[in-house]
């Protein structure tokens, strides 16, 4: 894996990440079949549940993007925001949204975790039918560039869900094929590759964790899935149904069978059981973190911040209200490759600064903003997404 100057946007989406909800689970009912129960926050440091954000019984206010108005959905169909069969979930931290798709439907739903309002993204790109197991959408994750990605069981559709202004746009990136080296460990065959979930790394590649515990690295450039190994340290009957990266850069996996959470080292694929709640039937996990070679050490000050993180008008605000921050500070902006694309010197007087900075010539995409003091010590790292 390529090493970066700033290799991981971990802990970069806020100075107080530990106080924020940043890990989510799609939880099902205690039944042999997939039956949606709720989306909830999860504290993965101790493996306990937090707020139930949206449940199968919640009142659903659905706004259709295509029809530009509120719609009433039939809850007895596969095409509704509370469909029984649900196995995909991603978290968009820039807008505090949960993004998901019913397993047997091409509908995409965007749930605002704060207001509970739902946007229906009707699309004709996804080709999903209830009777074709190959077409079912079962893996979803936020990419390093801020877009949402979803892959069906057989890899015949690789969807990109991006936001253009207030509208969501869906594109099919193509068919993911097996790498020639995979042999019997095929990404496209049910026994070895189907089901599971996926996570993203800082190179905007994806790792798909199949239900059988096999792990495939998916290159977005080549559209190939390369088998990298099988998870060890989990029970033989463990079905891997959810995966997401935690703040340490390891992958947390969960099972629809109500078995414990496990933490997996992505380099060794060795799993270690985590403490916490038992009998949680988890169909998918989502978080704001990304995998990479190593985590960034990040010293932060409670009263030093930049905002907004989703930049629509090419301006960000740098706010300091901390007497421990003195003199001149420097703001550096890095692109995804680690290239320094912008520098700005700022002056803090008596521990106070509130300045608007123009992000000149920055094209749409994800960036890392780093604030350092005169000695070069990092005071704050934060990821932003510039949109047109």
From TrEMBL:
InterPro entries: Quinoprotein_ADH-like_sf, Secre_tail
Pfam family, one: Por_Secre_tail
Keyword Signal carried by entry: yes
SUPFAM superfamilies, per database record: Quinoprotein alcohol dehydrogenase-like
Annotated signal sequence range: 1-19
The keyword Signal is assigned to this record: yes
Domain (Secretion system C-terminal sorting): residue spans on this chain: 307-384
Alphabetical UniProt keywords: Signal
NCBIfam families tied to this protein: Por_Secre_tail
Protein's name according to its UniProt entry: Por secretion system C-terminal sorting domain-containing protein
